[in-house]
Amino acid sequence: MDTVVIKGRPALLFSNKRWTYLDDYNKYLSYDSLFTNNWETKGIHAYSREKEKPFNDRTINLLENNSAFVFPLDTFKYLRGFKGSHTGIDLKAESGDSIRAAFDGRIRFAGNIHNGYGNLVIIRHFNGLETYYSHLSKILISVDDGVKAGDIIGLVGQTGRATTHHLHFEVRYRDKVFDPAKLLSLQEKKLLGDSLQICNKLFGIGSTNPKKEVTQTNGSETQYYTVIKGDTLFKISKLYSTTIENLCLLNNISKTSILQIGQKLKVTP
């Protein structure tokens, strides 16, 4: 609608009363498909509608498009790591402490999730990663906002399933979660390197190929997984980018059900 100057930088003013810096807008246009394809703004998982595809190993540049890295908290105390069903790291901080974007990117989700996350912000970054920041007391940005590394996106809180004020921080690639300790050093609050190898090993997926069956139901594909030795509901849920709760619902079982080798589990509706 118009071009204005904000803090000495040219900015675009849109008819919906939103605005963005001109150089940021041009930056997003160059990565248009990254911020339009699988751009789910109403829920957590953005790639669940894609059909199962062979996973190709690749290396990503963590500082894509000259992005920086900033640790999400200025000060913190380590509470809990990536283990078992815990899909991130918990960092103790004071109520109201500032939470910062880890890399440059764009806000894909900002709202309340009632499955334990509480107030949650998800940022998709230029390197393809997504970072999750949950249990916030207050969200300070909106969906589709552009952010730079270090920008304050919210405040530490205790919303959702949390027993103390802390930040639950996750890192995902195409909905697949992996241990943030494979990406950054908590002690030094910096990246372990400038690149990251995206492969099955990163996500804790073994070399054994999962046994899958696909059947047609009313024209849509329904996938089944055949349980092998060592499988758990947690492992299977991460393999298919779903939740344990969803697996239980699809198969009419409970979280404590004992899986049997050769048992077939429905993994998609």
Features:
mainly beta, globular, Membrane-bound Lytic Murein Transglycosylase D, Chain A, 269 residues, 8-stranded antiparallel beta sheet, 3-stranded antiparallel beta sheet, 3 domains
Task: Describe the model.
The chain has three domains: 30 residues, no CATH class; 140 residues, Distorted Sandwich (Glucose Permease (Domain IIA)), CATH 2.70.70; 56 residues, LysM domain (Membrane-bound Lytic Murein Transglycosylase D, Chain A), CATH 3.10.350. Helix content is 9%, strand content 35%. The strands form six sheets. Strands 5, 6, 8, 9, 10, 12, 14 and 15 form an eight-stranded antiparallel sheet that branches. The N and C termini lie far apart (44 Å). About 2% of the residues have low confidence.
Short description, anyone?
By secondary structure, this protein is mainly beta.
| CATH hierarchy class name of the largest domain | Mainly Beta
Query: Do you know the CATH topology of the largest domain?
Result: Glucose Permease (Domain IIA)
Largest sheet at a glance? 8 strands, antiparallel
What are the low-pLDDT stretches, counting only 5+ consecutive residues below 50?
216-220
Total helical segments: 3
Radius of gyration of CA atoms, rounded to a whole number: 20 Å
Which band does the percent of strand residues land in? 35-45%
CATH architecture of the largest domain: Distorted Sandwich
Question: What is the 3D form?
Answer: globular
DSSP E strands, number: 21
CATH homologous superfamily placement of the largest domain: Glucose Permease (Domain IIA)
Q: Can you tell me the number of structural domains? A: 3
Estimate the mean pLDDT confidence.
Answer: 86
How far do the termini sit from each other?
44 Å
